[in-house]
Amino acid sequence: MLKHFILTQDFSKEELLGIIELAKLLKTADKEGACPRLLQGASLGMLFEEPSTRTRISFEVAMTKLGGHALYLKPGEIHLGVRESLADTSRVISRMVDVIEARTLKHETVVGLAKDATVPIINGLTDYNHPTQVLCDVMTMMEHCPKGKKLEDLHVSFVGDATNVCSSLMWICTHLGMHFTHVSPTAYQVKEEWQAIARENCKTSGGTLTVTDDPAAGVKDADFIYTDLWWWVGQEDEIPDRRAAFMPKFQVNKELLAKAPPHAKVMHCLPASRNVEATDEVLDGPQSIIFDQAENRLHMEKGILVWFVYPRLKKPSAELVAHHKGKIEDFLSTRG
Ligand code: CP
Hints:
336 residues, alpha/beta
């Protein structure tokens, strides 16, 4: 059955941990210069309605390392619901590539692409979801897991605005039985209907969800303190209000870090507004793992691509390839 990677909620805990294990195997192989070319001859179409550094580069390099090829289709470059229906675009691209990664302004666009696609669609970020980022983040947390703790013991405190990364991280952590806290001024806390999904997760996973406007209480048990931008493109008019609401109480700085356990690590999905949501001192300090996190995007994209694409690829025998090559060469030779 064709499966897309649009929401982590669509996958079981075992499946998500399976993708992480696969990414770790590929990372180890890659570190030894021995990344297997599991997607040889395969193509990835990368559709972007917004700019990207990490997502674009990690997917393209992952595909190259796996022996495949990626096409970067930059914002505005193809008809995406303009001059051609989304359904037709999806059907056409599906006929030419083996997998599609899409970063779209609206979540509904990725869902619309998936409706008519005949190859897997991978969500590369929408207005409220960033599943490839947060699966990578859990992998990074596992790599930096404090001694004696397991995944289900981990406390993740997200300090800042209820961004797409915040909601996605809340869902994956509570789905995997982890303990998630959103620390934010009341007006910028993750919305109730999204909290409800996380609370539902907790009922079966054993995870917990806490939402608070008290930074000290919110980070006191944190193994990981995560932050993200306080505003994004399109929110320029809100900058004065947002800055006043978050600064200085919700900035990840050394005063806040001192209220967390000494082993707590600092994470940020990047790009960062340095000295806004987090200080240079913290982002470049000894507790920061932001660049391990960024590098893991590459290894996670390899894991996701292999998980979704490798089982679908035809693996012809050398004899079959030789048979077709011979027929084509015979044909060409008759034409002088
Ligand atoms: N974290 C992240 O998705 O970065 P890009 O916007 O650069 O892809």
